[in-house]
Amino acid sequence: MADNTKSQADESSLRSPRLHLWIAFFLFSLITMGSAIDAADSGLYRTAAQKWAIAGSSLTFISTLVIVAMHMVPRYSIYIVGTKLEGFILIFLIASWSAIVGVCSDTTSGLAVDSTGRVQNGNLYYFSWAGFVCSVVLFVSYLRSVYSIDMAGEIRSRSARLTLWAAFMASSLIVMGSSARMFDNQCRQVESYLPTYCRITKFAVSLGCLGTVLSLGIIALKIATSMAPFTCEVVTCILLFLMYTFGVAYITSEGAPGGPLNNLYYFTWFSFLLLFGIGGNCFEQYQAAKAMREGRPSAPAPRDAEIGM
To answer: 191-200: long-range contacts at Cβ-Cβ below 8 A with a sequence spacing of 24 or more?
Structure first.
């Protein structure tokens, strides 16, 4: 009885806490591979982008299948669970799926979106993004369990709202890149030039660029000094919030580049919601600091020393 319990404990210790994530990644890669093959076969021939999407998702499918199988056998799991091999595989998969997402979301690839950026293959579009997110989550879990690096905890302890600003910068980068690609595809040729559409696309490029630069400045201040001037952060947030208010109204309107359900649509709204969250957090921190100055000990204290206006 005791021996059976011990053997079960040994087997469970060899199982990775990331097994469920590897299984999910296996399913995402399987769906992405099948959808990419279907999308490529609908044309007369396969382009280089389509071949890459199929090759990348197929390689991931095979890799995750082998890794999941190794997890099931304690004799072989020691070669993958928590080893450097697992880390190298995850780094490679993150790089691969970054490219897969870019290829599938490209309006010229004929895969997940059409020439206007509208989603035409939902499985390929959403599950390619799901695979990319899963690869990042797997890598974070690997760092936490193997090297005791709690990235989320480190970011939270570094400064307030740093995670939100980092997410906003990434979202603004996608807004800028998606709108720039649409401008190149639709506004560089006379026959496809639409004045209103192209003006809004230029505005989307400028909005994404401005959001990326300003958020990068806030992040640099927070990382370098563990804080950013509170007034500077609030003014930046208000300015970007006003601009993204106009952005979601114009960019996602009918006939605009973000009108169809595409990367530009999703991440314009996501950026707007992130700014709403940043502004709300700033207001809460200001109220907490004000309550402390008024001598109310029951009020929650600010998470960092940023209220030195």
So the answer is: 196/255, 197/255, 197/256, 197/257, 200/250, 200/251, 200/253, 200/256, 200/257
How many residues in total does the chain contain?
309
Q: Where are the alpha helices (DSSP H) in 226-299?
A: 230-251, 263-293
Contact (Cβ atoms closer than 8 angstroms) between residue 265 and residue 259: yes
- Residue 197 in 3-state DSSP? helix
Paired with 119 in beta bridges are 113
For residue 251, the one-letter residue type is: I
Cα–Cα distance, 33 to 48 (Å, whole number)? 15
Q: From the centroid of its chain, how far is CA 71?
A: 27
Contact indicator for 27, 151 with CB cutoff of 8 Å? no
pTM given for the model: 0.73
* Residues 251-302: tens digit of each pLDDT: 999 888 888 888 899 999 999 999 999 999 888 888 887 888 877 654 554 5
Nearest CA among 290, 147, 154, 144 for reference residue 222: 154
Read off φ and ψ for residue 113, nearest 5 degrees: -130, 160
Q: Is 166 left (phi over 0), alpha (psi -120 to 50) or beta?
A: alpha
